[in-house]
Amino acid sequence: MMQDITQAKEAALAAIAAADSADALAEVRVRYLGKKSPFTAILKQMKDLSPDERRAVGPAANEAKTAIQEALAAQQEAIDAAHDADAEWVDVTAPGTPVARGSLHPLTRVQRDIEEIFTAMGFAIADGPEVETEFYNFDAVNVPTDHPARDMQDTFWVQTTPAGERQVLRTHTTSVQVRYMQQHTPPFRIIIPGRVFRQEATDSTHDHTFHQFEALVVGDDVSVAHFLDIAQKFFSAFFHADIKVRLRPSYFPFVEPGFEFDISCTKCGGSGRNSEDTAACGACKGNGYLEVGGAGMVHQNVFVAAGYERDRYQGFAWGFGLERLAMMKYKIDDIRHFHSGDVRVIRQF
Ligand code: FA5
Asked: Most CB contacts within 10 A, which of 77, 229, 254, 346?
């Protein structure tokens, strides 16, 4: 039996020395000290021994068990130390793990660019609600009830207020004009960036939800010449090019006279031709100009709705689509990309 003890001890010490991981060591511990181990079997046999034999075998078995336990503890310490050293080791020459960086949505970029150019020209930025009363969206800006102009901008009507006022999702940023004028006395110059909504079928240049930029300048002697000058300066700064602005007579109820305004094509510079050959320019289809928005001299009825005296002030207003401008700047061919949520589009900016 003494021989069994010695053999089991030596086998256990060899197995402990060979165990190079915490798992392997745990397995050795079970094999040599667990319920089915040779030691447990030897201890079970002790009761059959004579008192003399027991006196010899008992201490030997205890000594072997202690030796194994100490070897296990020492090996566990060695494995833990090796593991800690591995964990602390840093290869300072290894390439870094790339971190995915976010970017600004192209519309946010364009909006910030525009705001920067206008604030540098002394404009303040104004704001208004997206759910708007019928009064500010239509009545106050001279669009009478039953006037066909209300059909020009197909409208999402929403719940009437408890006070009985009809409400819309604003169809244009022109809705903020009278709100602002009621709170301020001219002279002032403001821009009104904002989201607007129209119930219309979507295609590559029309969305139901889009953004407009309104500019409103009111004072004693504001004229169309001021509008042309500011528009020319703004578009040239925005496109980093010498941009010409062209007016065409048009009708909007809130201005008189009213215009549609175009800018010289950002691709061909206004010639309507490609530079390499005489083929028509693809961006403006040979027109030389691109439609941008509507503008005009503020109608005196709008000033009166705001509480100003009729014919006391003059002003100009313009409104254009932010998406259309972003499409020109970044050569985006479909307006629906902006709200698609497709990160492949956004990642390019
Ligand atoms: C207006 O909304 C007028 N409030 C603009 C204005 C302001 C005129 C001040 C005079 C004085 P219009 O409906 O044309 O006008 O829209 C202006 C611009 O918004 C268009 O030139 C176009 O760039 C953009 N736009 C209009 N409808 C859509 C649409 N469905 N999707 C994307 N952009 C649109």
From this structure: 254
